[in-house]
Design goal:
This protein is of the alpha/beta class and 412 residues long. It is built from 17 helices and twelve strands. It starts with a helix and ends with a helix.
Length: 412
């Protein structure tokens, strides 16, 4: 604990020097979810670049019109007129994605690499008008920032299913309260994005913030989920890689991550035994942190495409406590829930949703019953649609709406 306190003091001293640099017209996006640019950040960056291009063109056109008008009045004053052709002030974008492998239990070398990465975070946070996060950022929480900086927490999950943050302090899968207090976990957020007010209270509890900081915006990835052009492109790529997916109905299994995966692996093999592979394909998409390997020639055990992309070819989705169900509900895919460790999971982590009452599909501890339900087409697609309307209220122009909000707060 003493080492952490010393590190925080050093970070504060160092950051005070970075704050001497002038603030730029810049948005910095920070993630610990991946070492590569995340999908939502990519879509936001591309929208900003599009906005920059359109702004520049508009300003250039206006400047040209102004010069032409002035030339009619004073044809000899060309030099003065050219000064009016001023380039607009574009929004700079900095993407900082670095995954701390192992978290607090990371190897020393990994912690050193992440420490160097944090220097880049310090500089860009200190020189930005807006910082957008999709996960916890140590420096945002522990440091005192310039008053003009606005911090947006755009959590990486579409909805909430599992308890997190301040909801699970001192629980088996949660942080220790004394550590959360020292690290000021999830502090300094000006705004927190949620896809619906239906879970705003739970989100605020997890972040330890007040409800007035919640703003209703769906994640940028929703624009891809509702894009026929994107769907066509992804389906073609998947079918090229796995031609069999175009010949049979596809069952997509997306379980959440568990620290102890022994039971999950056993349940996967039980499910494999129940599937009629003459009629169905079984596609298994495990959490990126999972270490399970599936040895079955009949199963599509994919590591190339994202779970979201696989939804485009899925005829049925089986999950448990994963928030992939929110994406699936947007596409109106029949949902089934294999909750073989429900009570155990509630005891270890806790859920923010009334599991058996709220979920739009059959819930069972038995893989055999889930597959039987799929075989007999036992599902209500209208329940899936109503679930989506409750928990993801907006599915149109999501990226554009977020950027409109960001533009507004940058001008404040």
């Amino acid at each position: 604990m003493m080492i952490k306190k010393i590190a925080i003091i050093c970070a504060k001293i160092l950051y005070s020097f970075f704050k001497l640099f002038p603030t730029q017209n810049k948005i910095t996006m920070i993630s610990r979810q991946s070492n590569n640019e995340t999908l939502d950040f990519k879509l936001l960056r591309e929208e900003i670049e599009k906005e920059n291009s359109e702004l520049y063109k508009t300003q250039q056109d206006k400047a040209s019109m102004s010069i032409v008008a002035d030339r009619k009045k004073e044809s000899n004053n060309l030099e003065e007129n050219n000064k009016k052709n001023i380039k607009p002030k574009k929004i700079k974008v900095k993407i900082l994605c670095h995954k701390l492998e192992g978290g607090i239990n990371a190897k020393f070398t990994e912690k050193m690499r992440y420490g160097i990465h944090m220097l880049s975070q310090m500089y860009n946070i200190a020189t930005s008008k807006v910082v957008i996060l999709d996960s916890y950022c140590i420096l945002i929480s522990i440091l005192k920032h310039k008053k003009k900086l606005k911090v947006i927490q755009m959590w990486h999950s579409m909805g909430t299913m599992k308890k997190f943050g301040y909801q699970i302090l001192n629980m088996e899968e949660g942080a220790k309260k004394e550590v959360a207090t020292l690290m000021k976990m999830h502090k300094n957020y000006d705004y927190v994005f949620a896809s619906s007010m239906a879970y705003a209270k739970q989100l605020a509890e997890g972040f330890g913030c007040t409800l007035d900081k919640i703003r209703i915006f769906s994640l940028p990835r929703v624009d891809l989920l509702t894009s026929e052009e994107y769907k066509k492109m992804i389906v073609e790529k998947i079918e090229e890689k796995y031609p069999v997916t175009a010949k049979k109905k596809n069952i997509l299994y997306c379980p959440t991550f568990r620290k102890d995966e022994k039971r999950l692996k056993e349940e996967i093999y039980k499910m494999i035994k129940e599937v009629d592979f003459n009629k169905y394909n079984l596609i298994i998409k495990l959490h990126p942190l999972s270490r399970i390997e599936i040895n079955s020639q009949e199963v599509i055990f994919d590591k190339e495409f994202s779970s979201m992309d696989m939804l485009f070819i899925a005829d049925y989705v089986i999950s448990d406590y994963s928030c992939i169900i929110y994406e699936a509900s947007i596409l109106k895919i029949p949902l089934f829930f294999l909750a073989f460790d429900l009570q155990e999971y509630i005891n270890k982590r806790g859920l923010t949703i009334d599991y058996k009452k709220e979920l739009p599909g059959i819930v069972s501890k038995d893989a055999k019953k889930i597959i039987e339900a799929i075989n007999s087409e036992k599902y209500n697609i209208e329940e899936v649609a109503q679930f989506r309307k409750k928990y993801v209220t907006n599915i149109k122009n999501c990226t554009e709406k977020i950027l409109e909000f960001v533009d507004k707060i940058m001008k404040e």
